[in-house]
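so ive been stuck on this for like two days lol. basically i have the seq below and the ligand is flavin mononucleotide, smiles is in there too. i just want the complex predicted, nothing fancy, no docking runs or whatever. if the output looks off dont worry ill sanity check it later, just need somthing to start from for the group meeting slides
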Amino acid sequence: MHLGILEAARWAPSAFNGQPWRFIVGKRGDQVFQQILSSLVPFNQSWAKSASALFLVLAKTTKNDGSIHADYQFDCGLAVGQLVVETHHRGLVAHQMTGFDKAIAQSALSISSELVPVVVIAIGTQDAPEKLTGPLLEREMAKRERLALSEIVLQGLPV
Ligand SMILES: Cc1cc2nc3c(=O)[nH]c(=O)nc-3n(C[C@H](O)[C@H](O)[C@H](O)COP(=O)(O)O)c2cc1C
C-alpha cells in the first residue's frame, strides 16, 4: 500500500481547515476488505472484489465544538479528488462508488454514529479489459464522454 495516496488526501484544503475526512482501508484478503465489499451493491461487488484495496471514506459531520460541518461532502470530495490523482500518478487506478449500503457499512465495520459513510474507492492495477464479459466489458470499452466547455461555462467562456 502506498501511503502517499492517503497523504495526498490528508493535505487537501477544507473549509476552516475542518478536515472532516476519515478512512478505513481494507486490503484484499483481510477482514476489513470483506466487510467493505459486503456493503457494495451486487454490480459493484462483481468487479470490486478483484481490487487490491477498498477504501471507505467517512465524514465527521460535527466539529469538536459541536457545531455542524456544513461543507463535509465538498471537503471529502476534494480530498478524494486529490487521492484519485495521486493514485493514477503512481500508475494505479482508483474507482469511486456511491453504490453501497451505508447502514451495512456502518454496522459491518462498527462505525461510530458521529461518522457518516460517504464513498468507497477501489484501488488496484489496471487489468486487460478482454478478461471481462457482458456489461462490464461494454463499460470498460465505452468512449469516455463529458459535457463540452460551452455547456458548463455559463458565462465568460474564454475565446
Ligand atoms: C461520486 C461517484 C460515485 C460513483 N459510483 C459508482 C458506482 O457505484 N459504481 C460504478 O461502477 N461506478 C461509479 N462511479 C464511476 C462513474 O460512473 C464514472 O466516473 C463515470 O461514469 C465516468 O466514467 P469515466 O470516469 O471512466 O469517464 C462513481 C463516480 C463518482 C465520482
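The chain has a mean pLDDT of 96. The pocket of flavin mononucleotide is lined by residues 44, 96-99, 119, 144 (CB under 6 Å).
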